[in-house]
UniProtKB/TrEMBL annotation:
InterPro entries: NTF2-like_dom_sf, SnoaL-like. This is SnoaL-like domain-containing protein. Coiled coil: none annotated. It comes from Streptomyces polychromogenes. Transmembrane segments: none annotated. Gene3D superfamilies: 3.10.450.50. SUPFAM superfamilies: NTF2-like. Residues 12-105 form the SnoaL-like domain.
Length: 122
């Protein structure tokens, strides 16, 4: 079992690295068999997860964390996702940490503004 402090620090590093486009650091945080389910898709394994993070990273401007709650090996982060294609999108990310790596990520938000913004980009 991961300590609450370690899980919280891992989540903080994850969001900082993603916002900075530091995918080498992100790779080191994710378990090889990480499982991702979100409003825009799913990913199985570190390569698919990184591809998804890189894809959204192309339009990512800022991650404005509102609150982060950690308990044991579970971390929930509520944040506003700022992108080049849509107004800030309230988003929640729930991750599970095991053995010092992120093994499961669940993300939910209303994707309509982002999808419309992607369509306008062509």
């Amino acid at each position: 079992m991961t300590t609450t402090k370690a899980a919280r620090e891992l989540a903080e590093t994850y969001f900082t690295a993603w916002e900075a486009g530091d995918f080498d650091t992100l790779r080191g945080l994710l378990a090889e068999d990480v499982d991702f389910v979100g409003a825009l898709g799913t990913a199985s394994g570190v390569e698919e997860a990184l591809a998804g993070l890189k894809g959204l990273g192309q339009v990512l401007e800022k991650i404005d964390v509102q609150v982060r709650v950690a308990e044991g090996d579970e971390v929930i982060t509520w944040f506003d996702l700022h992108t080049k294609v849509a107004a800030a999108t309230p988003t929640v990310n729930w991750m599970h940490v095991d053995g010092g790596k992120i093994t499961r990520i669940r993300v939910t938000f209303d994707p309509r503004a982002l999808l419309a913004g992607f369509e306008k980009q062509g």
